[in-house]
# Entry
Amino acid sequence: MTSEQTYYDYDWLLERAYSMLPKKAFEKRRERFVIPKADVIVSGKRTFITNFKQICETINRDPKVLLKFLLKELGSPGEVADQAAMIQGEFPSKTIITLINRFVKSYVICPVCNSPDTMLVKEKKIMYLKCMACGATSPVRPI
# Structure
């Protein structure tokens, strides 16, 4: 070893690294990421999710992506109209809420660090979940 090499204490280096991270990284995920409960109204043979756009904004996903997932899982046609989503058929609110939670778990929450700060990225025919907090890239099922 040469006299020019400097050795640092592990704890000092760890504290230095933590001090360089943004404060947002230390916030608890549950405190800052709360999905609004879906307001589901069944009218005739249609089901409406009245706060659909609000849910999409909270999870930071395009309404078309979430609606495509819901329609595929329910096996029913539907569309986004203004702030709401309309699905053909009668579906209980419990079913809709369960599906939205499943979408969030699969396509929003990072499987590595549990952060909701992610993006869906499609490269060729493969869809990935890219985490903006830890940098992990995880493949997900295509919607």
Summary: The first strand starts at residue 40 and ends at 43. The chain has five helices and seven strands.
